[in-house]
Fold each of these.
Amino acid sequence: MTPEPGRMTETWGNCQPIAAGERFAFVCAGCGDCCRARRDLVLSGYDLYRIARRLSLSPRIVAGAFCKSYVAPQSCLPTLRLTPDPKTGNCRFFEGSACAIHAARPLACALYPLGQSIDTVTAQTAYFAQLPLCGASAGAGQTLQDYLQNSGVQERAGADARWAMVCTQISAQLLAAGGAEHPHFAAAVKRIERALYYDYALGDEFYPQFQQNIAALQPILDKLLA
Ligand code: SF4
Ligand code: SF4
């Protein structure tokens, strides 16, 4: 399993897996440290869609205003990363001492201080704690299940697992076709970016649109990368 994008990259080696019913002692102290110096916050299409809905702006406009778009070197996938405030280095949604988009915060933020990895064959998800845990001690603590429920991670788990699986499949196809060496690589990346991030109507639910986008994308990719 590979760690999913998020804030776990710096300390992933020290992370400890947590079982569903296992308790861990954590209460957010509201210090805001996880919103400072966040340079590794990669967004999924669902993350972008939720922020776009929260701001009543199209996904493309949100990406243009708040994100850096690039092709990830290992996967060859188009990727979006939230860019920090150039003056403070903090996340640009960190206002005062709170998140201005709290209800629509990205998965990595909702999970923190946990990290997640998804088996892209079985869709099985594992969770890890970044140690030492930040925040205040919670006495007997809470179970992983309760934490995922209360942070809104549980209700989006299906979409996040599907996202990881689809991205893995598309990446494999790109790499098998020779990646950036393929003559139609740039066109393919552009089309993938649309399907993953941009072609979403905010008045409609994300997941059915995602499924439709991927179904429409596949024959185009097959042709482009043949
Ligand atoms: S999106 Fe919100 S929770 Fe996430 S880093 Fe930015 S301010 Fe913090
Ligand atoms: S999750 Fe941790 S680092 Fe972030 S505000 Fe809460 S206590 Fe602070």
Note: The radius of gyration is 18 Å.
Amino acid sequence: MSCVQCKESASFKEYRHKNVVCLLGDIRIARGYYHCKHCGHGHFPWDGVLRLSERALTLGAEEIVTLGGSLDAFGTVAKRTLPKMSGLKLSESTVQRTTEDAGKRLAEQLQAGKTFGQKTVWDWHIDANGKTCAYLSVDATGVMMQGPEGAKADGRMAYVGMIFNPQPRQTEDERLSRPCDGVRYLAGHYTLAELGEQMRRQAAQVGVGQATQWIALTDAGSGLEHWIDMYFPLAIKIVDFHHASEYLENLAKVYRSDAEGKTLTDEWCHRLKHEGGAVMLKELQGLDLRRLSKAARKMYDAALTYFTNHVGRMNYPEYLSNGWHIGSGGVESACKTVVNQRLCLGGMRWCEAGSDHVCHLRALYRSDPDQWEAYWGYPDYAMAA
Ligand SMILES: [Zn+2]
């Protein structure tokens, strides 16, 4: 047996016992202890083979504890879910630390440039012109934070990025509700630069480069347009249709009375969809502003600014005739399913590291199932599935 420290030969000393938590509960194992007289280092080779965690959980136990901690509150998992599903009785803090450690390792591996599983080129769907299309999207959502010793702290934004292969739209009014044929999420308290690097690696691993057309859907939030230019310069940028319509709706409601406001909203949204952002911008510029209240003027200015800044990414008639998706509903729902559903329940507050680690795990779990499997070391999942 060679020493793990200095590679000289280490000799067997004795068997030593250790209490270990496996999927079936607590067990006691005896494993050989080896000592190296060159550097004085002692080690247990069998611990490495079993991939025992720092808290003496086997890999199988660590995985289900982490899965539990990723899906529900640590206390609930410790008291109810784990005992019921596996018979494991662990403290809340063991569930929390095990989950956060796994998330930390995941974050470090992603940061170091690792991707999980085999490179596979997705079967990108084709648009109305026969071009294969790869979609990407990014959005941000808030997580409540807690300072040291329960002190109040500002919330932190978590970014959620996704690479996806949505099914082609069947009708013009369809929102993105059908499951995607391929989805990868990333989530965490990233800087946009970190997210960009990691998104590119995920994109490369699923063959975004093989798709003819890249489409980036966002709500045009702060910094996102520039981010797309930096990391996905070939992507056509589309502003989420529903965000653009919301500006029109807010304005229509104060520009006209109730019923008329509704009619005007429909009229404007229809125009935006079928004649595009440039036509709608012209209409806004031509509105009679003399009767506008102060509040209405504010809505008008907001709409005008949004349309002026993003008109080049609101060519909806063209996008629709190409058969492209025009809504960022996918990433908005990902903010909820990946982040909010676990991290924003009932006044939950997090420390930044813990929140970041759980975000990463949840993004991994909500991605195509091969991702979680590959991270936990089931190499044949893709072939078996
Ligand atoms: Zn040694």
Note: Residues 381-385 have pLDDT under 50 and may be disordered.
Amino acid sequence: MEENQEVLSWIEEYFSTDTHKTNLVCVLLALQEKFGYLSKEGLQAVADKMGLSPANVFGVATFYNQFRFIPPGKHPIKVCLGTACHIKQASKIMEHWERRLDIHEGEVTDDREYSLDRVACVGCCTLAPVALDGDVVIGDMSPSKIDGILLQHKIKNSKEKSGSDNSSTNESG
Ligand code: FES
């Protein structure tokens, strides 16, 4: 199913359940949790369902910085900039990610492999500074750890690629 259609069906089903969905932020959070971002069509459909103007819904969504409006990368990287992490130089960690990925916070790499976002405290302050690689929490972040994570992904990607090349060679042979 095309993603747009999937978003619309999900919203349809979400609003069809008994519980009253009156809190716009909660609705938007649920939508983003499901699809990783808020699409224009999704925002429009939420506005229709809640009887609100699209401008109102868009205004609320852009007010909170946890919402994103473009699909995340294959590896969504999130850097915690909560207080404990901030004290432990989290901004330097963010800068190193930005340099290595050649994007800024809130952006996605051209190959759509990585997206980079900030998050508030993820509840692992004793491990500060903290970052998330997908769902994996990584503590004691340092520039060398970032380099290691990127290298691991690169190795994994090239293994996957050579695996799929081999299978396509086998299929054709
Ligand atoms: S402030 Fe970063 S995990 Fe709590």
Note: The chain has seven helices and four strands.
Amino acid sequence: MKYTSYFIVTKLRITFANEKSNIIKMNKTIFITGASTGIGKATAIYFAEQGWNVAATMRTVSKGADLAKYPNVKVWPLDVMQTESIQSAIDQSIAHFGGIDVMFNNAGYALVGAFEAMSDAQLRKQFDTNVFGVMNVTRAILPYFRAKKGGTIINTTSMGGIITFPLYSVYHSTKWALEGFMESLQFELRSHNIKIKNIEPSAINTDFDNAIEFVSIPAYDGYAVRAHQNMLESYKQAPGPLVVAKKVWKAANDNNFRLRYPVGGLGPLLIVMRKFLPLAWFTGLVRLATEKGTH
Ligand SMILES: NC(=O)c1ccc[n+]([C@@H]2O[C@H](COP(=O)([O-])OP(=O)(O)OC[C@H]3O[C@@H](n4cnc5c(N)ncnc54)[C@H](OP(=O)(O)O)[C@@H]3O)[C@@H](O)[C@H]2O)c1
């Protein structure tokens, strides 16, 4: 009922707005979480430049100054752990742009290091952000997509939702949880014409200080510090976030129910190798690539 009246009111608003300006058109709208930096920001810019409306949401709106320069981008505050901020940003986006076509669950970070060194608070924050945050946003958009009889939910999971590397045990467990959650959720949503798409980037060169929280204790330092450095080196040689933005664009526009979109560097190949090689061979290769200089 709430969203049915939205459709009537916003249709009137758009007709009126179109007569007054060129800013709000019947263009499609993507709603992005974690748009302040990295993959979220690159996706916001890419979609804006293709003519979509972009609801660029972030915890700290002052980080969105670059994005706010685009006439078809609006920046709203949203913390995936605060449900009121999610509903408020969704409502504002629908009211301003006349709708939402794609929900892009992108916000997240990686808690990395020796598991024994991680506090309960750190573990819970990792799951609250990467798993429950995505569930919060997904649950908030579903009534609207059902009323609209369609919509697309795109998630930045990770190649780390399919395969694993050293020191990322907790991060992997959040992304594996998302892969399982979304793979199952697609069944019940299909009858409502709601598509689910998981973008699975390999290493992407974004801001590590923002994206990664590293912890260790002396007993693990000989292994963890060196292996972490090895992996950071591979991030530095990785492609930038534009390659992921283009994959999100493909997923948003291909109009089918394909679930998985691996992207970036060797990631798609590694996923295939993980599927077909014996696990011991695959983990042996991972050790060779990541454990140089440890022990
Ligand atoms: N970079 C990679 O190699 C890679 C590979 C695979 C998957 N991913 C995934 O890609 C996504 C984006 O990561 P990125 O590499 O672009 O890192 P990033 O540049 O650090 O971007 C992460 C974004 O998530 C936001 N965020 C963190 N906690 C949040 C919360 N509670 N509520 C709302 N927003 C929150 C950050 O906001 P603040 O600016 O406020 O911190 C930032 O906008 C993540 O889900 C990550 O796991 C990254």
Note: The longest strand covers residues 194-201.
